[in-house]
Structures are given as C-alpha cells and as structure tokens.
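Key result, reporting period 2: structure in, sequence out.
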C-alpha cells in the first residue's frame, strides 16, 4: 500500500517545490515569480466563471458584461477581480523580468529558462489584447480595428491574415467568436508553458543576488521561503482587494463603458496601461510596416540577451556601468508607457522616437559594448594587481 501511494508521479511536486533547494541570500525580488503564478490562477478561475455568462456576439457582448456586473450575484466582484487581476499579473511579470535583467538570470546555464519566460510573456500580451476586445465597448472595438488593420501592411500575406482574423471583410460576430475562443484557450497553454518554465528553473536552480554558484549554501523552499512568499502574496491581495472593492475602474478606461460604435472614433485610442510601451513604439515610427515590425521586435529582442551579454561578471550588482544602464532602461520603459497614453503630437512624438531608439540600443549596443569594456578593464587591471 505504501509503495502504491509513493508511485504516483504527482508526488514529485513535493520534492520539486517544498524541498526545492534555494540560495539563502534571495531577496524579495525573487518573490514575483510566485506572485505571477498566483495571479495566473486567479485569471483562469475568474475567466471560467465569466465565460458562463458572456455572449460573444456584437449585439449582446456589451449587454452581457452589464448583466454580469448588475444582475449576477457578486458578478461585479468577479469581473473586477479578473480585469484588475490582469494588471497585477503584468505588474508582477514586469518586476520578475526586470529582476532577471538586473541580476543576469538569462545567462548560462539558464538561457532556456529566460527564453521560455519570453515566450510566456508574448502569449500573455496576445491573451491580454484579446481579452481587452471582449467587453465590446468603444475602446475595445477601436483597439481591435487599429491593431488588426496594421497587420495588413505585411507584404503578400497581410490582407489574408486580417481576413482570417476578422472572419470576413470587417469586424463582426465571427471576429468576436474567434477572439473569445482564443482568449479562453490561451491561458491553458500559458499554464502548460509555466510548468515547462518551472522544470527549466529546477534543472539548474535559482540565480542569486551575488551571481555566483552557491550550491553548498542552500535551504529547502519550505518553510523558509514559502513564508516569505506568503507575506508578499497577502500584501498584494490586500492592495488588489482595495482596488476591486473601492476603485474597480482605477486602471481601466471610461470609454469602455460606452457601447461600441463603428461610426464614432474616440478622441484617443489606447490599450491597457501594461501594453502602452509597445503601443508607443508602434506610433513612434511613421512607416506602418516598420512600426508593426518594431512593436513585435521590441518583444522578440528579449531573446537575444543571452547572446549579447559578453561580460564575465553575472548581473549588475558588481558592475557600476551596467547597473546605471539597467536603471536607465527601466526609466525609459516608464517613459514609453507615459508616451503611449498621450496624443500623437509634439513633443510626445519626438520623445517617443528617442525612447524607442534607446530601447533597442540597450540590447543591440549598450549591453554588448559595456561587456567588452568591462572585460578589457579587468584584463588591464589584473596584471597590475599581480605585479
């Protein structure tokens, strides 16, 4: 009986998570991975509940959302938790990725871990955009119209892709059905990729602030770091609860409470706040095709980091130049987020173009150049020290 009980494969979870050996010097920056997983669970559970009452048709989509808000018992709470939970999900993922950038968690032997994380982020962006369209308010409709129309700029196949997405020659019921089906299914694909991401993490273990191997100096995940994770989870739950219950529309756009009207264009078309940096990059380039390529390139370019960081020192904590460059990158990302929320006029257009150039320069020029400079300085300093 005891052998039969232990033979279950799922019991390995206990050994891969509870008894997972963790570096002793991890800080709270390492908690955002667990927080991201927690908010993914919230999104899946609340999304399944909302799917029970949502009607994916252009005639009834908006009214079904109002029905959930006003008629379903605690429906307003579930929908607010789903909408604001997406913001918290992206917030945790952004902090998680910036921590990886800052501490060099994308370097050997964790390249697969970083690349799987980037793929997860790409799927998150697609899923979030699809979900933004579903309420079928003014901002939802025009966001779908603008973003999907941009695909038509792709030579040869662009128009065919748009026709496939729309299900016809314009945005209609078929479009909403497609977006609804994909938005419902992609989170389950995300969950499967999260499992693969965790397997890649447990293969080589977690990085640490010092950036050096600390295999002898490790503690089991339980109870030390599980308690640490629990503290941050409760802190974020408290903040999310306050927003959901008292400020449910704080992170949303008021125009999305107006039914979609194809005959009336909103004064400004903006996505959710967590997609604003990439929207700013899209608008910063006058050429339509180059703008689309730059927007997608701003996501894909994250994959090249393991190839362009030539420094022999992991992370930024012991590299003053790289530390400064990473904080400049972080501030520039916030600037792009602000630019994306502004009207496409001067001086915002010029600022957006400068920020876009700086964004791509960080990966293509700054990271490899600083690595070469630091390695050269180390090679010069070591013989002097030995002598």
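The corresponding designed sequence is given below.
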């Amino acid at each position: 009986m005891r052998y039969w009980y232990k033979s279950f494969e799922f019991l390995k979870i206990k050994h891969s998570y509870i008894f997972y050996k963790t570096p002793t010097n991890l800080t709270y920056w390492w908690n955002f991975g667990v927080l991201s997983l927690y908010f993914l669970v919230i999104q899946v559970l609340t999304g399944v509940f909302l799917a029970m009452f949502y009607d994916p048709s252009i005639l009834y989509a908006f009214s079904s959302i109002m029905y959930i808000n006003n008629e379903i018992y605690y429906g307003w709470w579930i929908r607010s938790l789903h909408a604001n939970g997406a913001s918290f999900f992206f917030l945790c993922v952004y902090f998680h990725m910036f921590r990886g950038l800052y501490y060099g968690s994308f370097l050997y032997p964790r390249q697969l871990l970083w690349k799987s994380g980037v793929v997860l982020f790409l799927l998150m962006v697609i899923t979030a955009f699809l979900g933004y369209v579903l309420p079928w308010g003014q901002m939802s409709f025009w966001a779908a119209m603008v973003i999907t129309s941009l695909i038509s700029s792709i030579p040869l196949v662009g128009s065919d892709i748009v026709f496939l997405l729309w299900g016809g020659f314009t945005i209609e019921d078929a479009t909403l059905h497609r977006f609804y089906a994909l938005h419902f299914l992609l989170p389950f694909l995300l969950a499967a990729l999260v499992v693969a991401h965790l397997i890649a993490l447990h293969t080589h273990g977690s990085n640490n602030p010092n950036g050096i191997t600390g295999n002898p100096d490790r503690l089991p995940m339980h109870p030390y770091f599980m308690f640490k994770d629990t503290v941050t989870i409760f802190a974020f739950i408290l903040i999310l609860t306050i927003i959901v219950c008292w400020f449910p529309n704080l992170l949303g756009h008021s125009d999305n409470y107006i039914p979609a009207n194809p005959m009336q264009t909103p004064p400004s078309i903006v996505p959710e706040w967590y997609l604003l940096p990439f929207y700013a990059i899209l608008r910063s380039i006058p050429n339509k095709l180059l703008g689309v390529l730059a927007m997608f390139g701003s996501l894909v370019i994250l994959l090249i980091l393991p190839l362009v960081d030539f420094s022999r020192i992991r992370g930024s904590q012991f590299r003053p130049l790289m530390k400064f460059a990473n904080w400049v990158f972080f501030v520039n990302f916030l600037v792009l987020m602000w630019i994306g929320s502004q009207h496409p006029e001067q001086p915002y257009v010029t600022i957006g173009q400068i920020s876009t150039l700086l964004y791509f320069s960080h990966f293509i020029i700054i990271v490899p150049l600083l690595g070469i400079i630091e390695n050269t300085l180390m090679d010069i300093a070591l013989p002097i020290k030995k002598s």
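Residues 23-265 form a domain with the Cytochrome Bc1 Complex; Chain C fold (CATH 1.20.810.10). Residues 3-11 have pLDDT under 50 and may be disordered. This case is discussed further under Risks and Mitigation.
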